[in-house]
Design brief:
This protein is mostly helical. Helix content is 74%, strand content 4%. The chain has five helices and two strands; from the N terminus they run ββααααα. It has a two-stranded antiparallel sheet. The chain is elongated and about 50 Å long.
Length: 159
């Protein structure tokens, strides 16, 4: 934003930096966004809306899984060994969904299965891993900053 400084010069005012959410909060936000997208998919009849939502759901799942595999789980593994859940089923479902023409009779079933997989995964994390990670001495703010930077890179790559 520019303002008039004395003597008519234009100066640039620094915008306050928005704090990045901690790692768990970021993952919870992704989970909530996915739930909203699944609900919107279920409630729409429009093929164009379904196509849009399929693309957003698939991108969100892929980016989310990659963030957890590259950054979150390696950090968590340092304080909670063997805490790394698998994303194999969800990634296979995404690949299958992306191979289909997104019309109701082809995509509805796989999207419902993916929604169920995501719900079970989120439930497991909320009941088991997240409380243990919160209780650890892991720096969730720093981890959140790393995840936010990487998420921006991944989204740019997929755009």
């Amino acid at each position: 934003m520019t303002t008039n400084a004395p003597r008519g010069r234009q100066t640039r005012r620094a915008e306050p930096r928005r704090p990045v959410a901690n790692a768990i909060t970021q993952l919870l936000i992704d989970h909530n966004e996915l739930q909203q997208m699944f609900t919107a998919f279920e409630n729409t009849r429009s093929v164009n809306n379904k196509r849009f939502l399929v693309q957003r759901i698939c991108t969100t799942v892929v980016v989310h899984a990659q963030l957890k595999e590259e950054i979150f789980y390696p950090a968590v593994e340092s304080v909670l060994p063997k805490a790394t859940p698998e994303h194999t089923t969800m990634k296979a479902l995404v690949a299958h969904i992306q191979s289909l023409e997104p019309v109701a009779e082809l995509v509805d079933g796989p999207i419902q299965v993916l929604a169920q997989e995501v719900n079970e995964h989120v439930s497991d994390l909320n009941e088991g891993l997240f409380p243990r990670v919160k209780a650890s001495d892991l720096d969730l703010e720093e981890l959140g900053n790393r995840m936010a930077r990487r998420k921006a890179e991944l989204i740019a790559e997929l755009a």
